[in-house]
Write a structure and sequence with these properties.
With 236 residues, this protein is an alpha/beta fold. It has a domain of 126 residues: Rossmann fold, CATH 3.40.50. The protein contains ten helices and ten strands.
Length: 236
């Protein structure tokens, strides 16, 4: 049984049909990536999983249990957390206050402290800036904070939306190294990323989206070797 499964999911923005029957699965322990051009439906797919956008048809299941009608805050308590595109940190709070906000559903102070320590271990720069107002951090530091905040609940599955957007190349490598580290630590990851080459470098499998449809699904190795994928997304 997949950890996460979407079965024939349709979603709309008003009259705009954004997802046309998306079906995909993510097994426990995997990194799966969604690849596609702007407007393909990648972010909408994550938002439907998170409950931020309601699917109009189809099913979303976590460990076999239907979650398609679950409110977003309850989706978090069930073990799915999203790092949104553009970081969306709390700019006027300090780094440590942001991390604590990520653990707002965690009732145990000891677990909150453990989550903060985990974030500081993954991102030592955050420890150095723990009392700094988050809005004054660099883009790379804000992405670290957004990821650290999302991990505060020790989620079953982490949804990452464009984690490398706007970052310098050396920071992109750091973020992807951290994605691999988090995954090796036991967190399953569904990754949306414009840098398809980097995404396929860390993922086990991938899905190609075009205008709300999945047009190709395969292992990362086979997608990297696919001539059409090379031409459209890998610059080959």
């Amino acid at each position: 049984m997949p950890l996460l499964e979407l079965d024939n999911v349709h979603a709309y923005y008003g009259a705009i049909h954004a997802l046309h029957g998306i079906s995909l699965s993510v097994d426990e322990g995997e990194i799966v990536t969604l690849i596609g051009a702007n407007g393909a439906g990648k972010t909408t797919t994550l938002q439907v999983i998170s409950g931020l956008v309601r699917g109009r048809e189809g099913h979303i299941r976590l460990s076999g249990a239907e979650i398609g009608d679950t409110p977003p805050h309850e989706v978090v308590t069930k073990g799915i957390v999203q790092v949104p595109e553009g970081r969306r940190i709390f700019a006027r709070l300090t780094v440590e206050e942001n991390l604590r906000m990520g653990g707002y559903t965690v009732p145990d102070e000891a677990k909150i402290k453990a989550g903060i320590d985990r974030a500081y271990t993954l991102f030592p720069r955050l420890r150095e800036r723990r009392r700094q107002v988050a809005g004054t951090l660099s883009g790379g530091e804000q992405q670290m904070l957004a990821m650290g905040r999302a991990l505060m609940t020790d989620p079953k599955i982490l949804l990452l939306d464009e984690p490398s957007m706007g970052l310098a190349p050396n920071l992109v490598e750091l973020i992807f190294d951290t994605i691999s580290t988090v995954n090796k630590g036991g967190t399953t990851i569904l990754l949306v990323e414009q840098n398809a080459l980097m995404a396929l470098g860390v993922a086990n499998r991938g899905y190609i989206l075009q205008t709300g449809n999945i047009v190709l699904a395969d292992t990362s190795e086979k997608l990297r070797d696919n001539d059409e994928v090379k031409r459209a997304y890998l610059g080959g």
